[in-house]
Amino acid sequence: MAMVRVMVIDVGLGNIGSVLAALERLGVSVERLSQPPDDADSFSHVVLPGVGAYSAGMDALNTRGWNGWLHNIWAPLHKPLLGICLGMQLLSTKGFEGADSGETVTGLNLIPGEVIRMDPGPGLTLPHVGWNDVHFHHFDCPIFSGIVQDGDFYFVHSYAFKPYSAEHMQASSHYGSSFVVAVGDSIRNVWGMQFHPEKSQKLGRRLLSNFLGLKSC
To answer: I want to staple 49 with a disulfide (CB 3.0 to 4.6 A). Which of 7, 84, 121, 127 is the partner?
Structure first.
């Protein structure tokens, strides 16, 4: 991993210190940026972390020029991109959190789908907070290599990503009902995790290490 140089997008979407620390512990070069760089070619990976409302997240990305940069500069390079928690949700086509009643917010549309409020059912509350088991659907993907099936990862969220295509659904969990917790497009090299790998101990470290091992498609 000596040649790995990771960009962490920081547009004020919560405290990302734990993400930075987790990546640095894996021995890679990490740079935290609030504005898009001029030298995209010098980075090997991008991580988009975040917590909070979908509308606030997209406002922050649009205001600082990240939406256009991710589409026009980064995506054509086919280098790995990982969205974490809200960062995963923002990869979708649209979301409802923070929008006016009956309205939607346009997302990055890097993985087609929508982000909807969870409905866990009687006796369960939102947000969904804590450890929950994750069932991976595509263990042939290198990003999931060596991760035990149905192992526990850490969650904090009230909304969930609903991909339009089943091929983009990489993993699911259960909280009253089943919901998607990992999405991915291996062609575009875009990945998203609803859980927090940086807070998920050994399994989370392995997933981040696997992500850093991904190459350009």
So the answer is: 84
